[in-house]
Amino acid sequence: MSNVFREFVQKVGSGNHTGENLTRAEAATATKMMLLGEATPAQIGAFLIAHRIKRPTGEELAGMLDAYEELGPKLQPITSARPAIVLGLPYDGRTRTAPISPVTALLLAAVGQPVVMHGGDRLPTKYGLPLIDIWQGLGVNWTALPLTKTQQVFEQTGVGFIYTPKHFPLINNIWEYRDQLGKRPPLATMELIWCPYAGDAHIITGFVHPPTEAMFQVALALRGVTKFTLVKGLEGSCDLPRDRTAIIGLSSSAPQELERLHLVPREYSFTTKNLPLGTTEELVADMQQVLLGNPGELMQTALWNGGFYLWRSGICPDMRSGIAKAAELLTSGAVASKLQELSQAVNLVAQNIFPKSNYHSHF
After folding, report:
1. Residue ranges per domain, the chain?
2. 335: number of Cβ within 10 Å
3. Which InterPro entries is this protein grouped with (predicted)?
C-alpha cells in the first residue's frame, strides 16, 4: 500500500464539507502512481470513483496532462505551414450517431493541414464504435505500427494516429477499472485534451456538459496552450451536430476568455437531422460513397464539418467558402486519393518499405 496515495484518496473522498481538491503537482503524482501500479487496486478504484463523484478541477486536469506528458508517447514535429490539429474524441466511441471525423481528417490532410488522432479499441463504459475500427474498414490498419513507423506515415501523409494499446500500454490497466466501476473517471475527461504531438498544435475537442468547457479552459491555460477549439458535439465528439445549433468556443487573444460561435445548420441550407449509426459495415459503405462524391445524409454531415474545419484551420476565409471547398475536394476525388495514399503508406511502412513523401503542408 502507498501511504502517499492514501492521502490523495482521503483528500478527494472526504465529502462536500471536508474534501479537498488536489494541487496540479498532486494530480500529476496520483496519475503517475496509478499508471505505474504504485498504488494498490483498492486505492486506485477508490480514487477513481471518489474523484468522479467530486468532479475534477481544471488544475487537476492540468496535472493529469503533466503525467501523460512525462510517461506517454508523442509524434515528433513535422515541417508544416500550420499547427497540427489534434482531434480529441471520447475513447469509448459512438453508439447513436454516425461519426465523420476520419473523413474530416482526410479532407484536411488533402489540403496540407496535418491531423493527429488518438484512441484504442472498443472500451468501457460505452463500448461504442471506436475510430480504429472505422479506419480499418477504410483500409488503414494503424494497430500494427510501432510509434516510429506511425511517425513515418505522419511525415509522408500528414495523418497520424496514436494507438494507445500499442503506443501507451501503461494506460491499458486503467481500462479494467473503468469497466468494473461502470463510470468514466476524470481521466476520460483529460484524454479529450491530451496532445500526443511535440510540435505546434491546435487542440480541438468535443464535450457534452458546459462545466467541462470551463475546466478545459483552465487546464489548457495552465499548460500554456493558446490554440484550441471546444465543440459541444455529437456524443461528446468534435463532430458538429445538424439537429441543433452548434455551440463552439474558440481560443482568443485573452487567455481566460472564449470567443463564442453559434452555427445554425439551416442557415447554410443543411437539413436539421443527424444520421443514426447503423452497423460498422454500413457506416464504412456510406463513407466510401462520400469519398466518391455521391450525395446523401453522410455527405451533408461531411460538408457541414468539413466547411467548419477548413475555415477554422485558416484554409478558407469563412464557413460558406469552406463548405464549397469541402464539396470540391470530395467530388474531385482529392479526399479519396488521400485515403489511398494513406492506406498505401501504412501498408508499405508495415512491410519496411519507405516510400518518398507526397505530403505538402503549404497548400
Report:
1. 3-54, 84-338
2. 27
3. Anthranilate_Pribosyl_Tfrase, Glycosyl_Trfase_fam3, Glycosyl_Trfase_fam3_N_dom, Glycosyl_Trfase_fam3_N_dom_sf, Nuc_phospho_transferase
Helices (H) and strands (E) in the chain, counts: 16, 7
What CATH code would you report for 84-338? 3.40.1030.10
* Rounded CA separation 201/61 (Å): 18
Strands laid side by side in the 84-88 sheet: 159-163, 115-119, 84-88, 201-206, 228-231, 246-251, 258-263
CA 317 to chain centre: 24
- The grid cell for 11 is 483528500
- pLDDT tens column, 86-112: 999 999 999 999 999 999 999 999 999
Closest CA to 124 of 182, 47, 42, 59: 182
Rounded to an integer, what is the distance from CA 65 to the centroid of its chain?
Answer: 14
Q: Range with the lowest mean pLDDT among 22-36, 197-211, 241-255? A: 241-255
Answer yes or no: are the C-beta atoms of 291 and 342 closer than 8 Å: no
Instruction: Give the DSSP letter of residue 110.
Output: H
CB 334 within 8 A of CB 110: yes
Residue 271 near residue 248 (C-beta atoms within 8 A) = no
Side chain identity at 357, as an amino acid letter? S
Q: Which residue has the cell 498532486?
A: 26
Whether residue 68 contacts residue 197, with contact meaning beta carbons closer than 8 Å, is answered with no
